[in-house]
Design brief:
about 40% helix; 5-stranded antiparallel sheet; alpha+beta; AraC family transcriptional regulator
Length: about 270
């Protein structure tokens, strides 16, 4: 169901209480995270359990990293208990502002996993995220391709140092996916699920904001070839001409310099 958003499966083996740290990768645009919070951040399925040892199959979204650390502390409570063949997904809590979820994801989300015949999952307290058993996941979503493409474009983070040509490509990609969204909504009018329609409208608004930012950056790159120079600073060619003129003033005879100054005053 979530093949288009999850990474390839990874096999994780634990034999002791384990701390799972879920964190946002570096240089990830907040717009991508904002557009993807409706989907699970990761999915873990119990493959084997043998006493305190267990084997898990993990998949996560591309913009998060998952680290596993050994801990001695045994949680005194648990949120979800899983047997072989069962699993969980991590979602942001409903009715929590996306901004809060994104900030917490940047700091990291702590989850405790331990096995004892069964596997116990516990999210640390006061986290704006929750674990949902697979069979109770009512947020299942099969996204159309245009929705996936829009999120992919939002996830690309152009750099200020990119050339004008590269920025023009980014602008073209944004405009193309916005046209695809408009064509899809027009062609599937009356057939689109209301939730998908709302998601498309939200993404289109975010894409419009990104296009405006790209356009400003593009025009600045045309007017300001170097970020180390002000946009109204004299160009290098003018500076060279001024340096040559100063050299001529120093090397030319005084009578020639006076004649040039007189001619210049007469023109003014």
């Amino acid at each position: 169901m979530h093949q288009h958003i999850f990474s390839h499966p990874t096999v994780i083996q634990i034999s002791h209480p384990t701390l799972v740290k879920v964190r946002l990768l570096n240089d990830i645009d907040d717009l991508l995270v904002l557009a993807s919070l409706s989907n699970p951040l990761f999915e873990m399925i119990v493959s084997q359990v043998d006493g305190v040892a267990a084997t898990l199959i993990s998949r996560q979204q591309a913009f998060v990293s998952i680290d596993f650390e050994k801990v001695q502390h045994i949680a005194d409570r648990y949120d979800v208990t899983r047997l072989v063949g069962q699993g969980v997904r991590l979602y942001s809590r409903m009715a929590v502002a996306p901004r809060i979820c994104i900030e917490q994801l940047k700091q990291g989300i702590d989850i405790n996993i331990q096995a004892d015949g069964e596997v116990y999952f516990t999210v640390y307290e006061n986290m704006p995220f929750e674990l949902i058993p697979l069979e109770q996941d009512l947020r299942l979503l099969c996204e159309p391709q245009v929705l996936v493409s829009a999120k992919t474009i939002l996830g690309q983070k152009p750099l200020h140092s990119e050339s004008s040509a590269a920025l023009a490509v980014h602008i073209s990609e944004v405009e193309q996916v916005r046209r695809d969204i408009a064509d899809y909504m027009r062609g599937e009018s009356g057939k689109i699920h209301p939730g998908v329609s709302t998601e498309l409208l939200k993404l289109d608004h975010l894409l419009q904001n990104k296009r405006q930012w790209l356009m400003r950056t593009y025009h600045q790159s045309l007017e300001r070839p170097s970020l180390s120079r002000a946009s109204n600073q004299a160009t290098l060619d003018v500076e060279k001409l001024q340096q040559k003129l100063e050299c001529y003033n120093l090397l030319a005879p005084s009578d020639v310099t006076e004649l040039v100054n007189q001619l210049s005053d007469d023109d003014n």
